[in-house]
Design brief:
By secondary structure, the protein is an alpha+beta fold. 40% of the residues lie in helices and 22% in strands. It has helices spanning 5-12, 32-38, 40-43, 65-72, 119-130, 148-170, 184-191, 193-210, 234-249, 275-291, and strands spanning 17-21, 27-30, 79-83, 92-102, 108-117, 174-181, 216-219, 224-230, 252-253, 258-259, 262-268, 297-299. A 5-stranded antiparallel β-sheet has the order 2-1-5-4-3. Strands 7-8-6-11-12 form a 5-stranded mixed β-sheet, with helices on both faces. Strands 9-10 form a two-stranded antiparallel ribbon. Strand 7 and strand 8 (224-230) form a beta hairpin. Helix 5 runs antiparallel to helix 6 (148-170), helix 7 packs across helix 8 and helix 8 (193-210) packs across helix 9. The longest helix is centred in the middle third of the chain and has 23 residues, at 148-170. The protein is elongated, with a radius of gyration of 23 Å. It starts with a helix and ends with a strand. Residues 135-148 have low confidence and may be disordered.
């Protein structure tokens, strides 16, 4: 079976992995991203029994999304699978979906498979489960006990990892902001923990009111919040965060008798950048905002 040269050229430029299987279940093509993801598995035509289930056990060939599509004659659902890129290496975890491509008569010509690298998200999910943390991906991660501070950061990191994968898959921009309440420790020290919780609740409510429906946020720890804004340019994201910052200045929190201020950094996801590197970059801008006098949102470049 031959594929058009234009199809090869197009899929090789895609950031997500793409593979093509024949109707008998044999892999006939893997684009550059798929070869990078699967390593030697792609080189040996990706046999369906070379993958792992989410438990780490070998996946039965009949349970692979390609086999499901060939058997049911329709697109499979998304499934997370593991694959060892080389003997002795830790598995890479990928989200996989298969879909049939038919000719004009309705006969299945081949199966196209989409692959997304979700290794970081998968690692964080396992760590969340190990710490008995909830896994919500939207809203505010609570912090009512000392142990939940670690959960809050894990939830925020998992949220970011998922957003990066989705941005790559959809080829959309992704802007991220890291916020920190100014002098939040002093609020707790001067007015008590209950007042600190009231401040956090007020900030979360105000932040939610300033965001679009597709934006999500999570509390990191203390007075830190991570905000994920899919589809927004750097300038648009900065404007949205500036609106939030100014909104905070307009109201007094009853338990403190004063307004709350916030500092933050905003970045746009770069090509080939993963979630940890993006978080490191936005954290450095938050640090600059604090050094520059607080109560400001610093973008990655001039907006």
């Amino acid at each position: 079976m031959k594929l058009a040269r234009e199809l090869y050229d197009f899929t090789d430029m895609l950031p997500s992995g793409v593979m093509v299987f024949s109707p008998d279940g044999a892999a006939v093509y893997a684009n550059h991203a798929a070869r990078e993801l699967l390593g030697v598995v792609a080189e040996v035509a990706a046999p369906l029994d070379s993958f792992l289930s989410e438990t780490g056990a070998p996946l039965a060939a009949d349970d692979h999304p390609v086999a499901v599509t060939l058997r049911e004659r329709k697109a499979s659902g998304w499934r997370v699978l593991g694959v060892r890129r080389a003997p002795g290496h830790s598995p890479v975890w990928v989200r996989v979906q298969a879909a049939p491509v038919r000719d004009a008569a309705g006969a299945m010509r081949y199966v196209v498979v989409s692959l997304e690298d979700v290794s970081e998200e998968f690692r964080l999910r396992r760590e969340l489960a190990a710490h008995n943390c909830r896994d919500t991906f939207i809203g505010v991660a609570g912090e009512t006990a000392a142990g939940e501070t670690h959960c809050s950061r894990l939830e925020a990191n998992a949220l970011l990892a998922r957003a990066v994968v989705q941005a790559r898959d959809k080829m959309h921009p992704l802007s991220v902001c890291l916020l920190d309440l100014d002098m939040f420790k002093r609020v707790n020290q001067a007015f008590g923990r209950r007042c600190g919780d009231e401040v956090i609740a007020y900030v979360a409510e105000t932040l939610g009111a300033c965001l679009r429906p597709e934006d999500v946020f999570s509390r990191m720890n203390g007075g830190e919040f991570l905000v994920v804004m899919p589809g927004l340019s750097l300038r648009e994201a900065w404007q949205e965060m500036e609106m939030f910052r100014k909104r905070l200045e307009e109201f007094v929190v009853p338990c403190t008798g004063r307004a709350v201020s916030v500092s933050g950094g905003v970045v746009l996801l770069r090509d080939e950048e993963d979630a940890p590197k993006l978080l490191e970059r936005v954290d450095s801008l938050l640090y600059l905002a604090k050094l520059d006098g607080r109560n400001r949102i610093v973008p990655d470049s001039a907006v």
